[in-house]
Amino acid sequence: MAEKEKESKSAEYTVSLRKASLKGRPDIQKAKNAIAILYKFFQKKYHKPKEQVKISNEVNEEVWKNSNNIQARIQVQAIKKDNKVLVYLKESKELKKALEKEREGEKKTAEKKKEEEKKKKEEKKSAEKEKKEETKEEKPPAEKTEKLSEPKQEEKQEQESKKVNKE
């Protein structure tokens, strides 16, 4: 279950900001309201509290640069990573950097897993070799063991049967 939480998922969204640009509001309130709409959208989408939703600087700057004339929609990409939601502009530099870091992290974890698997295989092989050596040492050599010849075996069986008959 912990492994699933560490996995990151990304998705693209087009968020409507029309409600933020209602007439009769000051420009500052329009921008603040637009940011609040973004937070609410991702809180509902990912079921996370506001503290776990992070909006990138580029998204914030995009909203604030047009604070007097807020866009009707904004295209963003959200990445769910380590129990947080990171929101970036669709084709931004920050998004590319984040994705590159993520890929590097995935490569490192894959390499670590491969190394661990190799170590486990080596340990198993060495354990098997030790077991084989121990079993060879425990078994007495074939020359020292006496094999009963057929006549001796027959004699023993007869003696056993006589004992059973006497009782």
Indicate the mean pLDDT: 80
Given this structure, which CATH class of the domain at 2-90 is correct?
Alpha Beta
Give the number of DSSP strands: 4
| CATH homologous superfamily identity of the domain at 2-90 | Ribosomal protein L31
Structural class: alpha+beta
Q: Give the topology string: H per helix, E per strand.
A: HEHEHEEHH
Describe the structure.
This protein has 167 residues and is an alpha+beta fold. It has a domain at 2-90: Ribosomal protein L31 (Ribosomal Protein L31e, Chain: W). It has five helices and four strands; from the N terminus they run αβαβαββαα. The chain has helices at 2-6, 27-46, 57-65, 93-138, 150-166; strands at 9-16, 53-55, 73-81, 84-89. Strands 1-3-4-2 form a four-stranded mixed beta sheet. A hairpin with a 2-residue loop joins β3 (73-81) and β4 (84-89). The chain is rod-shaped, with a radius of gyration of 37 Å. Keywords: Ribonucleoprotein, Ribosomal protein. Belongs to the eukaryotic ribosomal protein eL31 family. One of its GO terms (biological process) is translation. GO terms for molecular function: structural constituent of ribosome. Residues 98-167 are annotated as: Disordered.
State the main characteristics:
167 residues, alpha+beta, Ribosomal Protein L31e, Chain: W, four-stranded mixed sheet, 58% helix, rod-shaped
